[in-house]
Amino acid sequence: MESVKITNSKKAILQLKDLSVSYTPGKYAVKKVSTEIYPNTITAIMGPSGCGKSTLLRAINRMHDLYAHISTTGEIILKDKNVLEMDPMEVRRMAGMVFQQPNPFPTMSIYDNVLAGYSLNGIRLHRKEKDEIVEQSLRSVALWNEVKDVMNKRGSFLSGGQQQRLCIARTLALKPELLLMDEPTSALDPISTNKIEELLLELKQEFTIIIVTHNMSQAARISDNSMFMYLGELVEHGNTTQMFTKPQQKKTEEYLTGVFG
Amino acid sequence: MKDKIFRLLLFVAALLVLVLSAAIVYALVSRSSEAFQEYGIRGFIANAEWDPRSATEEYGALSFIVGTLYTAFFALMLCIPFALSVALFNGVYFKGKKISDVVRSVVDLLAGIPSIVYGLWGFYTVRPLIIDLGVNAQGFGIFLSSVVLAIMIIPYASSLSSEFLSMVPNNLREGAYSLGATRLEVVRHINLPMAASGIVASFILALGRALGETMAVTMLIGNTNRIPAGLRDTGNTMASVIANQFGEADGLKLSALIAIGLLLFIITAIINLIAKLVMKKLSHA
Amino acid sequence: MSQDRSISFTSRRAKDKTAYILVCLFSFLAMVPLFFILWDVVLKGYKNFNLRLFTEVTPSSVDALMARMNGDPIPGGILNGITGSVLIVGLAILFSIPLGLFIGIYLSDNRGKKFARTISYLTDLLQGMPSIVIGIIAYAWVVKPLGGYSALAGSVALAIMMLPMIVRSTEETMNMLPPAYKEAGLALGSSYTNVVFKILLPSGFGGIFTGILLAISRVMGETAPLMLTALGASVVNWKVTEPTSAIPLLIWDFYNDPNLVDLIWSSSLLLLIVIFLLNWIAKIVARKWKV
């Protein structure tokens, strides 16, 4: 489990220490993963189906709390605080998540959808503040011009790609430290995928992004660093270009060359 | 914090169902104990005598149990060809077509008509027909109530059945057709066998409905408190004797009526349980 | 040889055709009673279906007798039944909706767990209970302690009948919602309570509301349990602890009184109109708010 030192002068924004997640006692979906994520980077988590990448991602924002039979051990340090000991709701405001299926809330308008993080948390804002946040968030996902005249409509008429950008805007509106993305473009067409990839490259200047993807070329295109997981273990974590050209582990090489997965 | 309280409320609400069910059973059992103690459980069930007169007071459930089973089973038998036809109509023959929507809506409306309106219609319109058919002189009886009951349960038997029939996967049907089968053969050899458990379960559920039906039956069955001699005879059911005699009842009579209610509860619960088991077999198949 | 095959093919075709005709015929026959019933109720009921029906209380038997002897139309209406139905069903709604919603949410959230499955099974059991037995229960729990018949007892009975239906429709609606809604809501840092009330319930409104409407239309026509609990009254009554009338109860009273018997059809017509209206609205809501 060697990792290439990622040259970055800033301190790690996220540290995982012996993180393990199990669905049934004795069987681990994620086995003792330890590593660091640095700010303003895009880190791709790759691996074959069932390797634990989504499970790992979801552990970070405590999504596993929803299911009583899942147990998480180890440490997840987000900005000097242990996520596993924090209030889950606070964690989720610091680490936002975008899911595979775009899911704008069906009973809210586009405007309200962007602000959903605030209304759900009972945070009251003035009209002016709301307008500012909505415009800023929608601009940052390049959706503002497309929807500024129909903001009071429900989001269901938007295309898949636009809906996903709306969901990203919704997550960004809360100004999280970390942006967790679980295969965000798997359900989208190539053009929308392209647009969102460009978007992520821009967003990395302000946010730190961890993206789970089953698409190696996507990882190669947009990520600075990549994590390769296999059967719950973190096999390799390093600079993407270096990993793809000269992988340090045999398993990584096999995956990248298509021997399995 | 807020979530803890909310989740607790949800749990308490669900628990209430358990409490309610237990309380219902307790209420029925405790208030019928007087009658069961007087006659013994087997004695009460096997006694066909029902005499509320104070001098010769004697209560037994048998006449009503027989009457209930008689009407319900006969109604089920009458309804099967019709319910099955509607199920095939909606689930296979005209599946997805507009006319199926029409038929479905009509049958839904049939289900919406209250029992008492069925009773009125049965009394004023169907009874003269029964008399004309020469079934019996006054029209009242097992036959009349079963006929109306059959119409009432068609919607219940047909809607679930049609769903099961339509759930048969298309590729199986196409496979059979491509071998040169006629539609009837596909239905007989593919649809019906696959939907069989579901269809049986829906008929059992319809039977459960028929067993508990009160108003229409009480208006049409003749209300004689003895074991009916045959389809042409009058009789009484458990539900209707309770409806009829509960008003002024107290003491032993009240307890006897509640005992009948308990028996009815048990019978319908068992029928519904059987239906559930049959459907479970379907999901494991 | 080929001759044998062609004969059997013709007979198979004939059987197929016959079956098709029988299915259509019997389906048609199954629908016929609806038209006969509607025909009867409408034709016999529209005569007395006037404003009086809604504004006056039931006439006494004597008044009705006098009117008939004079060849006059029967005086009075069913106002006490209408208000009684509103009161009793209204209270039943108040009891059963919040409880039904909560139980439905709980069952949807805890799908598959042992306790939830037990509760689900018991809910089905409650649904299958004959209405007269529910009447006995309400009698035991409300009439006996209060020492008399009451609207409250009637609404308890109807609430018990409505509860399983509302639980089922809520549970099924919640199950049909994409789990992404709940997850996305929680991922934004929301409390579970807020996710339920601000996202899940609004999103599932169509299915839940349909279930409620159907439950209401089901109990509006119930007579048997009310006979044992609300009993009936000849005056308009809004006090929950007093005996109260309801439309089906009045129909039963009229049926049993030779002087008032003509009123059964107009009352039935009103009852059917209300029930069919509720069903129709439920259908529209279901279609419009498809999850």
Please provide a written account of the structure.
The complex is a heterotrimer of chains A (261), B (285) and C (291). Chain A is built from 11 helices and 10 strands. In chain A, 34% of the residues lie in helices and 25% in strands. Chain A has a 6-stranded mixed sheet, sandwiched between helices. Chain B is globular. Chain B is mainly α and 285 residues long. The model of chain B has no long low-confidence stretch (mean pLDDT 90). In chain B, helix 5 crosses helix 6 and helix 10 (238-245) runs antiparallel to helix 11. Chain B is 78% helix and 0% strand. Chain B has one domain: MetI-like fold. Chain B contains 11 helices and no strands. Chain B has helices spanning 2-39, 41-46, 62-93, 98-112, 115-132, 142-166, 170-178, 183-212, 215-220, 238-245, 251-284. At the B-C interface, helix 1, helix 3, helix 4, helix 5 and helix 6 of B face helix 1, helix 4, helix 5, helix 6 and helix 9 of C.
Q: What does this entry show, briefly?
A:
The complex is a heterotrimer of chains A (261), B (285) and C (291). By secondary structure, chain B is mostly helical.
Total separate domains of chain A: 1
Proportion of residues in helical segments of chain A:
25-40%
What is the chains' assembly state? Answer: heterotrimer
Q: Kindly report how far apart the N and C termini of chain A lie.
A: 19 Å
The chain pair forming the largest interface, with residue counts per chain, is: B-C, 80 and 77 residues
Beta-strand content bin of chain C: under 5%
How many distinct folded domains of chain C? 2
The proportion of strand residues of chain A reads 15-25%
- CATH architectural arrangement of chain A: 3-Layer(aba) Sandwich
C-alpha geometry of chain A: globular
Going across the major beta sheet of chain A, what is the strand order?
6-7-8-3-9-10
Reported for the largest beta sheet of chain A, the result is: 6 strands, mixed
Under the CATH scheme, which architecture of the largest domain in chain C would be assigned? Orthogonal Bundle
Form type of chain C: globular
CATH topology of chain A: Rossmann fold
Give average pLDDT of chain A, whole number: 89
Q: CATH superfamily assignment of chain A?
A: P-loop containing nucleotide triphosphate hydrolases
- SS elements, strand count of chain A: 10
Parts with pLDDT < 50 across at least 5 consecutive residues of chain A: 1-5
